[in-house]
Task: structure prediction
Amino acid sequence: MRKNIIILTLSLLCALPAAAQKDFGGIARFGSTVHDFGKIDTRDGAVSCTFEVTNISSAPMNIFAVITTCGCTSVKWTRTDIAPGEKGTIEVTYKNDEGPYPFDKTLTVYLSGIDKPVILHVKGVAYKGKK
Result:
């Protein structure tokens, strides 16, 4: 019994790095689909993060569009074809000019060769610090 528990625990620990990456349609692999800014002060201004996507197919891939849920987030993404084995990026900037409140903003990413869009999230808690 104890041996079974140890084997199960080791198996789960080995699976954690694989679970962090997300594969979509055998075409794209995202390092992560969620970025948590944690607790951020509205006085610090805009915050940014970058999502990386790797082309895991044998054909060039393209990021056609990235749509945000509101005007408080802006995006820039790789506009050229991403060759097999190469990486592209989606850079996200959250304005952080309102608050205090928790936020979870959605980005809808359209990739060539994948029928359904990939959903990314940026989240955190904006607060107003003491002046």
In short: The chain has one helix and nine strands. The radius of gyration is 18 Å. The beta strands are 22-24, 28-30, 34-41, 47-55, 63-68, 73-77, 87-94, 101-111, 118-127.
